[in-house]
TrEMBL record, chain B:
Species: Sessilibacter corallicola
Name of protein: Ion-translocating oxidoreductase complex subunit B
Keywords of the record: 4Fe-4S, Cell inner membrane, Cell membrane, Electron transport, Iron, Iron-sulfur, Membrane, Metal-binding, Repeat, Translocase, Transport
HAMAP family for the chain: RsxB_RnfB
Domain 4Fe-4S: 38-96
Keyword rRNA processing: no
Cofactor: how and how many bound: Binds 3 [4Fe-4S] clusters.
Sequence segments annotated as region (Hydrophobic): 1-32
Major location (coarse): membrane
Pfam families registered for this protein in UniProt: Fer4_21, FeS
Enzyme class: translocase
NCBIfam families in UniProt: PRK05113.1 (NF003475), rnfB (TIGR01944)
EC code(s) of this entry: 7.-.-.-
Length: 872, 199
């Protein structure tokens, strides 16, 4: 498509293109410098050897690579897809193999590196299949926008905003403005494009108008320094409703907001988008590419770029593949590196210096300037501001650049905002006119960046505050829950204590003494401890031996072994001390017994064992015995009533626990009688007894009593519950201990050994407790029977196994016993397995397990015997 | 009545003044109850100026407590993460001269840092998780931990408790996303200014 000669007739006769041009504020008139690159026709660049495709060429999220290193790609193949709404696809601009995907310097004012896909050419330029479409105007809007989106189209004027996003808006459009202004000096890429492809551009405009709901006003705006392009477009626009208008040159009338004002007289308000005044502006290059994308399915893989400057043999426009290294293009124009002072991407007003010529051409690269040192000398150093006000005259956004300069220098962000810093379009007109050569735009850019960062930090700090407050709240909640649990536990303990006291008062009739049943337990305990001691001693021996060996061999494990020896020693010590404590304990108990019994026998009938027990109970508590007995009588009466009711009900229901209930009733009656008798006896001689007892109790004894009371409190819980709670608490403690140990290990702390010992001990204990729990579990149902209550609480814990077995024998039918035997057998099986594994692993809880196993076996025997007796 | 007033103007004036005093007293009393301001608004403003790192470098447990202390008359220069800019902002709010930041020998706060866990060295002790005021560390016991760098305020509090010292405070790298133009070098001597930008 060659340019048509301009005929005055064509311009004059075109009433279609008559339009009022509005003035814009400010602006400058820098030397055009456009003729250099217009001397030669548009050429196609040679196929580059490799292309570098940065993943972030557009505004928004960087694209996501879709190809792997070493993969063969075809020209136009999608190599990275848009990630998110505001993002754009990237296509291979040549065919070849993906050489690497790596961080490379990209053309960006920061000079930073960015992720790029590097494709090595195979020289064939094999095209991927393209989806051509002749009747594209018949397609739906969504479909067309999708085509534009998948072609990776972005605004080609410089900002690089994804085109599809701009077109996807639903707001009604009044003006569609196609920006062919190209107001920056040196750049002629759009001019050449318009001269060469006017029909494609017009089709593109029609396509965009179609997508935007055919707005009334469709206009292509050009500066009047492009008469050939104007004529070509007007020729092509014949018979359409597209206006092609030109207006006097004035930098920066190509700015989006300035162009809208120029062509419509409407000013886009501060902080608003063009859509606010019903206008959409598209770059001329984007329009052309949109047509190519929809009509021929051609993705955005090449663009026209102006290569210009005195450091080149000749200047001109070139259709280059996206991703071509700048050096490759410069070579084609005879670049003389010696002459060049710098390389600028974009125009001289808004472009930026690129660090070297290895960076690639982007979708937004409209110009590369390679000036000589004479053409663009190094920046003159800035002088002081003389407050001449020329910048304010030049500012197209009608800002006060001088004020902004002062505030930017002093970081006064608030003032900058009140002076509408963000309306600055960074056109550089102020810097251009500044007689002191102050780089004003750089100050504004820096200030904008600082304000954005500040805003982000503010948002982040707000989020941080919320997170912190949330954490505080969460912790407070957890604490409150813990506290509530603690209180509940305390309350439960108090209640249990109370209950215990009641029971104690009632237990007068029970004749058991705690020492007798305690004896076997003490024996067991002693046996266990002795075993532990023996094993600990043998372990100590072996540890010592090993240590000596290690010392002899001068092994590096000496320290470790020494620690083990120490550990074993502590364990032996521990076992010994425990054993000693156990041996002294029975003596204490008996002594205590005799002491307590002495005063009671003196004050009451010596031959009455019941009296003795009562007196003892009284000695343990400071409560007046008389009151206690009285209350116990009351509660017994209540319970008796209840038991009788239950019994009556059972009789009427002919339930199978009638016998048990009857027994319970009888026993209660007995108890009540006894208690009443006591009450009578107690009534007269109460005060004296109290006094006598108080004298007897010395502090040491008081402590013993306290400990006993505690034990009793525990016993008042059902043994099963007790075991359960102890298992729980042990598990907790074990976890904590393990944590501590892990911590100590990681800290390399000195007390690792001690902690390890603690953990082991806790494990032993836990195992024992679990065993106990298991043994107790099946007996739980038996609790239902009132039987339990009549047992002396002091005795209960120790005697429970026997008593319950007896109770079971009395209460349950044969089937129950048989069941029990079976369950016992399975449990023995399980215990055996556990024990075996423990033996294999040489675990520390062998003893505990064997003990449990033995107990289980004994119990099984007893149960079987009972069953046999029952059957007889 | 009118006669009494006209006859004894001094007493009348006193009575009138007394009545006015009572009326305005009542009005003020009513207003002070009706329009009572809950809390201390200055604390809110101060809190919003502080960087919310909750690092405790000021000696108080978090930013809000420090804001309260400033309102009570504490020094305003105790916030190293906020830097001199925060000191100046607070000084402006309080209407006082901005003192120099008292960083207490800490590193300059001008470089923003975030905690980074060297993940293969992490033993999963959860101590840093407990220390983090932002809940910005993810992980569980015996599992590797990691820092959500977007939420990390760079308060340093996780570094101390780490038993294996696998937490580094690294400056936030400059990326294309967070890069911003720098202010031009104010050097007016040409040879001091090697950068020749085309702006």
């Amino acid at each position: 498509m060659t340019a048509k000669p301009i005929t005055t007739e064509l311009i004059a006769t075109s009433a279609q293109h008559a339009r009022k041009i509005f003035p814009i504020a400010g602006g400058v008139h820098p030397p055009q410098n456009k003729s250099q690159s217009l001397q030669r026709p548009l050429v196609s660049a040679r196929l580059p050897e490799k292309v570098i495709l940065p993943l972030a060429q557009h505004i928004g999220a960087p694209a996501k690579p879709l190809v792997a290193v070493g993969e063969r790609v075809l020209t136009g193949q999608l190599v990275a897809e848009a990630k998110g709404f505001v993002s754009a696809n990237i296509h291979a601009s040549i065919s070849g193999t993906v050489e690497s995907i790596e961080e490379l310097p990209i053309p960006h004012p920061s000079g930073l590196t960015g992720p790029c896909i590097i494709i090595h050419s195979d020289g064939k330029d094999e095209k991927a299949a393209q989806d051509e479409c002749e009747n594209y105007m018949e397609l739906g809007r969504e479909e067309l926008i999708e085509k534009i989106r998948s072609a990776g189209l972005i605004g080609m004027g410089g900002a690089g905003f994804p085109t599809s996003v701009k077109l996807a808006g639903q707001a009604p459009i009044e003006h569609l403005i196609i920006n062919g202004t190209e107001c920056e000096p040196y750049i002629t890429a759009d001019d050449i494009l318009m001269r060469n492809y006017p029909y494609e551009i017009i089709h593109g405009v029609e396509l965009l108008a179609h997508l935007l709901g055919n707005p009334k006003d469709i206009v292509i705006g050009l500066e009047e320094n492009k008469p050939e392009a104007l004529a070509a477009l007007r020729d092509a626009a014949m018979g359409t409703n597209i206006q092609v208008v030109s207006f006097p040159c004035q930098y920066p009338s190509g700015g989006e907001k300035q162009l809208i004002q120029r062509l419509t007289g409407k000013e886009v308000p501060s902080g608003k988008l063009p859509i606010h005044v019903g206008a959409v502006v598209q770059n001329i290059g984007t329009t052309y590419s949109a047509y190519r994308a929809v009509r021929y399915g051609e993705p955005l893989i090449k663009r026209i770029t102006t290569i210009v400057g005195d450091a080149l043999e000749h200047s001109g426009n070139i259709e280059a593949r996206i991703g071509t290294p700048v050096s490759d293009l410069l070579d084609q124009f005879g670049f003389k590196a010696k002459k060049s002072s710098q390389l600028i991407m974009g125009g001289p007003m808004m472009g930026f210096v690129i660090p070297n010529a290895d960076v690639p051409v982007l979708k937004t690269t409209n110009c590369i300037i390679a000036p000589s040192k004479k053409e663009m000398p190094p920046v003159t150093p800035a002088q002081a501001c003389i407050r001449c006000g020329m910048c304010a005259e030049a500012c197209p956004a009608q800002l006060l650049p001088q004020q902004l300069y002062w505030y930017a220098r002093s970081d006064d962000h608030e003032k900058l905002l009140t002076h509408n810093l963000f309306d600055c379009i960074e056109c550089g007109a102020c810097s251009y006119v500044c007689p002191s050569h102050i780089p004003l735009v750089q100050y504004y850019r820096a200030a904008k960046g600082a304000i954005r960062t500040e805003r982000e930090e503010k948002a982040k700090s707000d989020r941080s505050r919320k997170r912190f407050e949330f954490k505080q709240e969460r912790i407070a909640k957890a604490e409150a829950e813990k506290e509530a649990k603690r209180l509940a536990r305390q309350k439960a303990a108090q209640e249990a204590k109370k209950k215990l006291e009641e029971q104690k008062a009632q237990s007068g009739s029970s004749e058991a003494t705690p020492t007798k049943p305690a004896a076997p337990k003490v024996e067991d305990e002693r046996a266990r401890l002795e075993r532990t001691l023996a094993s600990a001693q043998t372990r100590l021996e072996s540890a010592k031996n090993k240590h000596q060996e290690a010392v002899a061999e001068n092994s590096d494990r000496v320290e470790q072994l020494a620690a083990k020896v120490k550990q074993a020693e502590t364990r032996v010590e521990d076992a010994k001390s425990k054993l000693a404590a156990l041996k002294t304990a029975p003596a204490n108990t008996s002594a205590d017994n005799s002491q307590v019994s002495a005063p009671t026998s003196s004050s009451t009938d010596a031959d009455n064992p019941v009296e003795k027990a009562i007196a003892k109970a009284m000695a343990k508590q400071s409560m007046s015995p008389y009151e206690k007995v009285k209350s116990s009588v009351e509660s017994l009466t209540n319970r008796l009533e209840k038991a009788q009711q239950k019994h009556a009900q059972a009789v009427s229901d002919s339930g199978d626990n009638i016998d048990a209930l009857a027994l319970g009733v009888e026993k209660l009656k007995e108890k009540l009688d006894a208690a009443q008798q006591e009450l009578k006896e107690l009534a007269p001689d109460e005060p004296s007894k109290e006094a006598a007892q108080k004298e007897e109790l010395d502090p040491a004894q008081a402590a013993i009593e306290k400990a006993k009371a505690k034990a009793l409190a525990k016993q008042s819980m059902s043994p099963y519950e007790k075991a359960q709670s102890s298992v729980e608490s042990l598990t907790n403690r074990l976890e904590k201990a393990q944590q501590k140990h892990a911590q100590a290990v990681s800290d390399g702390s000195e007390n690792v050994d001690a902690l390890a010992l603690g953990v082991e001990k806790l494990k032993e204990k836990l195992n024992a407790a679990q065993q106990e729990l298991k043994e107790l579990a099946p007996k739980e149902p038996a609790k239902e029977a009132d039987q339990k209550e009549e047992l002396d609480p002091a005795q209960a814990a120790i005697e429970r196994a026997k008593a319950k077995a007896a109770a079971n024998a009395q209460l349950t039918p044969k089937e129950k016993l048989a069941n029990q035997i079976e369950s016992l057998k399975t449990r023995i099986g399980k215990a055996q397995i556990k024990y075996d594994t423990a033996v294999e692993e040489n675990s520390d809880n062998q003893e505990a397990l064997s003990l449990g196993l033995n107990k289980l076996k004994q119990k099984l025997e007893a149960t079987e015997k009972e069953l046999a007796e029952l059957e007889e | 009545m009118i006669e009494l007033i006209t006859n004894q103007p001094i007493i009348a004036a006193l009575v009138a003044l007394g009545l006015l005093a009572l009326f305005f007293g009542a009005l003020l009393g009513f207003a002070s109850v009706q329009f009572k301001v809950e809390g201390d608004p200055i604390v809110e403003q101060l809190d919003s100026l502080l960087p919310q790192t909750q690092c405790g470098q000021c000696g108080y447990p978090g930013c809000r407590p420090y804001a309260e202390q400033i309102a009570q008359g504490d020094e305003i220069n105790k916030c190293p993460p906020g830097g001199q800019t925060t000191v100046e902002a607070i000084a402006e709010l309080m209407g006082v001269e901005a003192p120099q930041l008292d960083s207490g020998g800490a590193e300059s706060a001008d470089i923003k840092r975030v905690a980074v866990i060297r993940e293969d060295e992490c033993i999963g002790c959860t101590k840093c998780i407990q220390a983090c005021p932002m809940d910005a560390i993810l992980g569980a016991a015996k599992q590797m931990h990691t820092v959500i760098s977007d939420e990390c305020t760079g308060c340093d509090l996780c570094v101390e408790p780490c038993p294996v010292d696998c937490i580094d405070m690294l400056p936030i790298p400059v990326t294309l996303q967070n890069w911003a133009w720098q202010k031009p070098n104010p050097n007016i001597i040409a040879t001091d200014n090697p950068q020749h930008q085309a702006a």
